[in-house]
Amino acid sequence: MKIFIEVTRFHPEKDTEPHVQTYEVDMGATSRILDALMYIARNIDGTLGFRKSCAHGVCGSDAMIINGKERLACKTLIQDVAQKDGDTITLQPLRHLPVQKDLMVDQTPFLQKMKAVNPFFMAKEPPPGTTEYAQSPKERVAIDDSTKCIHCGCCYSACPVLDEKPDFLGPAALVQAARFVFDTRDKGVEARAELLDHPDGVWGCDNHFACTKVCPRGIKITKLINQTKRSITQYNDKS
């Protein structure tokens, strides 16, 4: 089917402001947005900037805004966002992050916020008489959802809180925190309370659910954040 791809383009070293460039391509309905971008880069305009890697929805590198919604280009089919010949598909870079070129954004602020919550294992003392940290299937289920994050930045882009509070840690960082807060083998909230218990931490979340709606991995992000809020409240009550 013939479609038009409208890309918001911007190169900070050359452009004073973003502009839209339109490409006409013929693609199958079950082709992916990434396929269309690759076709453009190889056959029409080799200067178009975008990222890709695994092309299977695992690395998260090709996250962008497609027809107004954060998605992965490798997981979005043409038929998901265009129904007939002549339809237009708009592509924009993720929000809240500096544009490096066209659809490529600088993830440094996003990754720094994730690092700020200590997203690594901080082990409790092992049970007496063993060096292993046993965990039941039920305890494992409690952290399963948070382990699915691929650091794509879709939730960060969609979060309306960041429009007004740029210092808010953001949904992805809070998911990383939840991964360890609810791990029974980890020191949990005790080791991270100071990092999370402030207006730009978990309390910055206003429950818009925008992050949950765009997550390509289906993570219940807002639920995890609210569970973390309750965990911090319980911790403070005991302190």
Can you tell me about this structure?
With 239 residues, the protein is of the alpha+beta class. It has 2 domains: 2-105, Roll (Ubiquitin-like (UB roll)); 108-238, Alpha-helical ferredoxin (Fumarate Reductase Iron-sulfur Protein, Chain B, domain 2), CATH 1.10.1060.10. It is built from 10 helices and 7 strands. It has helices spanning 33-43, 78-81, 108-115, 137-144, 154-158, 161-164, 171-181, 189-196, 210-214, 221-238, and strands spanning 2-9, 19-26, 63-66, 69-72, 88-92, 99-101, 104-105. The strands form 2 sheets. A 5-stranded mixed β-sheet has the order 2-1-5-3-4. It has a two-stranded antiparallel ribbon with strand order 6-7. A hairpin with a 2-residue loop joins strand 3 (63-66) and strand 4. Helix 3 runs parallel beside helix 7 (171-181), helix 7 (171-181) runs antiparallel to helix 8 (189-196) and helix 7 (171-181) crosses helix 10 (221-238). The protein is elongated, with a radius of gyration of 21 Å. The model has no long low-confidence stretch (mean pLDDT 96).
